[in-house]
Every structure is written in structure tokens, then in C-alpha cells.
What we know:
Elements: E1 6-10, H1 14-26, E2 30-34, H2 37-46, E3 51-55, H3 63-72, E4 79-83, H4 88-96, E5 101-104, H5 109-123, E6 132-135, E7 138-141, E8 146-149, E9 152-154, H6 158-169, E10 175-176, H7 177-185, H8 193-207, E11 217-220, E12 224-227
Parallel strand pairs: 1-2, 1-3, 3-4, 4-5
Antiparallel strand pairs: 6-7, 7-8, 8-9, 10-12, 11-12
Amino acid sequence: MNDSKRILVVEDEQAIKLGLEENLKFAGYEVLTASDGPDALQQGMQAKPDLILLDIMLPGMSGYDVCRKLRDSGAQMPIIMLTARQDEFDKLHGFEMGADDYVTKPFSVKELLARVHAVLQRGRAREDAAGEFVFGECKLDMASRILTRGGREIILTRTEFELLAYFCRNAGKALSREVVMNDVWGTEYYGTQRSLDSFVSNLRAKIEQDAHNPRHILTVHGVGYKFAL
């Protein structure tokens, strides 16, 4: 069993939804289902699943909008987007809305289960039990997992918190994109370097006074990134 982890499957194609439900249950997960955007949003906010598999093309409200509204409400459960599209822009747009991973149809059950496992494992990564980092107008409290800027709480997704915490703990070091992705998400992470760059862009918008001229998350050309407290 997978510690009774509850997964919300949001898919309007009945055959795909039933197939996902059966395979996830066989793998030991508890499964909830939704067939349209409004129902997905309601269940995501009320049932608080441990992970959401979210189709993009949905009746009533797109998966992008469901993801954005969940993140705006403060929901931090991992979200894996499901889509038949393969365009890089669509993937980056999903990450900008707060998605944690992206699976393109058609996909194998083995691949999907591996991604579900990897994302849930990332969520279990141990953070420092106490302590805080202060930089500019921001304070990152490791115990409460709360970021404040100028005394106001800034909502971070689970992935954004893990990435920012990693940068803070490694302040002053020039870090390659490969090292960051491996250390934060592990070797099972299926994202690309463009995905990492998208997460960095989102963080800069939240912590920098001028995201186009950052003072904290610095680009090291030809290498990756360096964080300055």
C-alpha cells in the first residue's frame, strides 16, 4: 500500500478515467474522480487529495484554470497535468499555473505510476525542522514552510518552496541546472531544464523587487544559478 495516499483523477474521457482509477487502486492508492473543471476545483479544495492528475481540456473550466484557482486558494498538493498536446509553450504555461509535472498522452501506465511516485516522494523530502532565511524584504520560515515579503505572506507551491529552500541552503554556490534538478527532485524527475527555468521565473516574480534584474536568484551564464542572501 502507498500509505493510503489519496489521488484525485480529473478526466472527461470515461475510458481513460476508468483505466487510471483501476491502475491507481491496484497500486494501492485511494482514488477520487471528477469529469469537469468545476467538480475538480470543488473536490480539490474540499477533499484535499495528496495529488491531482488533471486533464487540461475539460468541460466547464480548463485544467489550467483549475490549477491556478487551487494555487490561488493556497492549495499545495502536487498537480500532474495530463494533455494530448506536446507543445513546449503548453507545458510551460502549465508550470506557470502551478503544476508540478506534465504527462503527454498517450502514456504508459508504468510511466504514469513512476511519475506519481516520484512527485509524492519529492513531497516527502525532509526540510530543516527549524530555522529561517532572511533576504531582502523576504523571510522563509522552514518549520512553517511560509514565505513572507514585507510582512505579508506570499503563497508558494510545494515545488516553489522546495526550490527556494534549496537555493537558500546553498547560497553563494554556482549550481548547474542538472545539479539543481537532481538534488531538488531526484533522478526520477521527468521535467526539462526549461521547466526549471520556468520555476525560477515564478520565484523571481515573488521574491525580487525587479524580476528582470534579480538580486537574489542570479543567472550564472554557461552554468546555471547562484542564490545571494
